[in-house]
Amino acid sequence: MSTFAQQQSAPLLHSSTSSRFAGRPQSSRHATVESCEPLSRTSRALAAFGVMLAGVLLVLIIVSYTNQPLLMRTFGLDRANLHPSTSSHGGLSYQNYTSFPLLGTQYLHECAKQMSGFMSHGDYWDAPRHHGAPMDVDHANDPHNRICNSTITYLLDGKVGLAADLGLMAQAAALAQERNRTFFVDDTHWTRGKWTEYFEDVTSLQRGPEPGCLPPPPQEFVACPRTARHWVINSLTAKYHLGHSFEEHYEDPYGHQLNRKKPVFDMAQKSFASTIRPNEEMRTLIKIAKVEFLRKFPRESEQLEADKHTTLHRSYYSVHIRRGDRIPHGWMHHRKPIATQVYIDAIFQRLHKSDSLIQSSQSPVVYLASDSPPMLEQFAEAYNGTTFSLPGSKHSELNILASPQDYHQEMFDKLPLQARRKATKGALIDLALITGLWGGEQEPRLDSAVVSVSSNFGRLAAIGLGWEGAFGNVDEMGDIDNTRKKWIDVDLQGTELPVWQAFELF
């Protein structure tokens, strides 16, 4: 048998006379072994270092895929402290658009592209990823680190009414505070003018984690997903963010019916108390209206008026009658406007409850608001008591703000800007007195609100009254306290559960 050294070392097709065909000498193996010299100490150290470095790199690669935040914190690269200047590689691009911020309908289109065709089953704040990176658009260089690191912006565009926008905005502001993001309001496309014409700048009230930082370039706004660095939300895209997944995450999972809504109620109440507040001009107008309204209250005697308990005699009912482009939700109305008498009957049904601040023998003073001028006259004629509304004000700066016609969104948008501004100021004064929001001491006190849940004024009235004030002692099964409630819905009248929702989705 031939040895391994005698076997050919070249392809069989080569000639036997070729130099490549020559067999290896039997001593070649031994010569090779004898020629190897032991590795030097330096070589062994370099080899060990190479193995160690390869191990470290392997660990970093594994961690980068399984726990990227831990890796970034370890090396001081936490995203909370960075303003990346390179592409996010997140798979999103709004480069087909030329004007920013986009319109609300355009953001809706982008959300439809991202969100349709699949359903997320993860946590509300799980970040969808594209090739391992969180889905986002590219971000521009910020060499001076002046742009806020992470933001939530509510985009106003006038596609819905004032109260509808405020109800949605209250949730967005609360989410920004919870997620430690800076909150902004963008009014570029708002058909009512500028936000600060009516409200205080939100950045002065809810300063966020980086006070004084600048809003991001609008081309970096992302409507979906909400985990993008600069999330923008508006009345049209809210259905993708404040729907079922929001309810599953933020409502009380152990509560029944109305009790499930308590955390969301608290979020809204906190936003209206701390972030969404009328500016100085509007506070002045609201105060003028309240002072004039106080003169409508009966004064039995000077002594009684000076008594510390006279707040009982300055309590009022608010009534809001929505007409225009709204249809009642309740089946019993047969899609027809709710009759004036239904509102009046609700007042006196509530009046006879034992804990009412107003003596049952009296007809309570009513602050009346409606988007329909004829309804104000109709109610005042039918009601056996004192009413007050903006058209009846003796102050020209108030009665000029009264709604001149039924509110239809499309018709409103066609009005001249100055007319829209007046109507918005009037609506905000009405909202303050109908809901009791932004109230203070030494003012007329809202006892009860008679409203329709199909109107967003009606939804916000519960926020102004407070949880127990609006719903009484809600029992463990989430049933409203019909004896002590001060929020009276004349639309659904408790026929649908839960009886109240914080906002409307469009």
Can you tag this structure with a few keywords?
transmembrane, 8% strand, 10 strands, 17 helices, 506 residues, transmembrane helix, 2 domains, five-stranded parallel sheet, alpha/beta
Description of the structure:
It is a single chain. Helix content is 35%, strand content 8%. It is an alpha/beta fold and 506 residues long. The protein has two domains: 104-250, no CATH class; 279-489, no CATH class. A five-stranded parallel beta sheet has the order 8-7-6-9-10, sandwiched between helices. Helix 2 (41-66) crosses helix 3 and helix 9 crosses helix 15 (417-435). The chain is elongated. Mean pLDDT is 85; it is low at 1-36, 76-87 and 301-312. Keywords: Membrane, Transmembrane, Transmembrane helix. The chain crosses the membrane at residues 45-65. Residues 1-30 have a biased composition (Polar residues). Residues 1-36 are annotated as: Disordered. One of its GO terms (molecular function) is alpha-(1->6)-fucosyltransferase activity.
H/E element sequence: HHHHEEEHEHEHHHHEHEHEHHHEHHE
Largest sheet: 5 strands, parallel
Please tell me how large the radius of gyration is: 35 Å
How many individual domains? 2
| Span between termini | 90 Å
- The quaternary structure here is single chain
Derived from helix and strand composition plus strand pairing, the structural class reads alpha/beta
DSSP strand tally: 10
Strand residue percentage: 5-15%
Q: Label the overall shape.
A: elongated
Strand order of the largest sheet: 8-7-6-9-10
Mean pLDDT: 85
Specify the number of helices. Answer: 17
Helix content: 25-40%
Weakly predicted, low-confidence segments? 1-36, 76-87, 301-312
Biased composition (Polar residues): 1-30
Region (Disordered): 1-36
Transmembrane segments: 45-65
GO molecular function, one term: alpha-(1->6)-fucosyltransferase activity
